[in-house]
Amino acid sequence: MLLLVGASGTLGSEIANRLLSAGHPLRVLARDPARVRPLAERGASVATGDITDRTSLDRALEGITHVITTANAFIVPARDAIERVDVQGNRNLIDAAKAAGVRQFVFTSAWLPDEFLRIDYFAAKRRTEAYLRASGVPYTILRPAAFMETWAMVIGEPILKTGATQIFGKGTNPVNFVAVKDVAAIVVDALDRPDAVNAVVDIFGPENLSLLDVAAVFERIKGAPARKRFLPVTMMRILSGIVKPFNPVFARQVAAGALM
Fold it and tell me: DSSP letter at 163?
C-alpha cells in the first residue's frame, strides 16, 4: 500500500491517477477529504490528516510500504508556512515513515542553481533532502526542472486571453522545462527500482526555451503577435524585498522570476 501526500495538487493528482491506472493500492492524505473525492471514487482510500500533525501521520501510515510526497506551502500566505509545512511537516512525515518501517520514501524536490537557495521555499527543499538522507529511511529524491505547465500559464495564458503578456527580464535566458505528466511517470517508474533507492534523480525536459520562446509558441496558437511588457530584473529584486514582510507568496514568486 502506498501513501501519497499532496494528492490534490497538480503533480500529486497526476501521480495518483497513474498509480490507480497501474493498479497500485493507494491511500491519500488530505486535510479535507472533499478535495480528493475524484480519487476516492476511482478506488483510493482517504486518510484524514496533515503533515503538521504527527499523530494523524502515524494513523495514515499503518500498513504503508511506500510514501510519496509532493506537498508544499509555496502559495500559502502565512509567514511561517514554509517552516511549518515544508520543513517541520516533512520532518514529521519522514519520522513517521521511519517508525512505520516503510521501504521507500519518494520526495519531490527541485533541480535548481544554488542561487535559488536564497528563497525560503527552495532552501527548505534542500533542508528536507539532507534530513531524509540522514534519517536511515530508504529514499528517492526527485529533482525536476521548472514545470512547463506553470510557465505556460504565466506567460502563455494571458496571450490567449488578452493578446498581451509580461516577460521577466529580457526573456532571453534559456531555461529547461519539463511536463508534469513526465515527472509523474518517473515517480511511478521509480517505485521499487533498485537503482532508484538511496538515489537522487534529476528530471529534465527535451529542450531549453527562453520566456520569449514560450511566448512565441502561444503567439502561433493565437495566430497574432502579442504585446509584451518587460519587467526589469532590478525592479523585481527590489519589489520582492519590499513586499516580503506582508505578502511572502508574491515575494518568492517575483524572486524566483528574477533568478530565472
Answer: S
DSSP track, 201-231: EEE--S-EE-HHHHHHHHHHHHTSPPEEEEE
- Cα separation, 240 vs 234, in Å, equals 10
For 198, the grid coordinates are 538511496
Q: Cβ distance 58 to 93 under 8 Å?
A: no
Q: Which of 157, 174, 179, 155 is nearest to 229 (CA)?
A: 155
* Sheet containing 175-178: order of strands: 146-147, 175-178, 208-209
DSSP reduced 3-state for 3: strand
List alpha helices for 85-119, DSSP H: 90-100
Tens of pLDDT, residue by residue over 38-91, are 999 999 999 999 999 999 999 999 999 999 999 999 888 888 999 999 999 999
Share of the chain above pLDDT 90, in %: 92
Q: Contact, 53 vs 29, CB < 8 A?
A: no
| Total number of residues shown for the chain | 260
pLDDT digits (tens, 9 = 90+) for 246-256: 899 999 989 99
1's grid cell: 500500500
Distance CA 211, CA 209 (A): 7
Distance separating alpha carbons of residues 96 and 226, to the nearest angstrom? 50
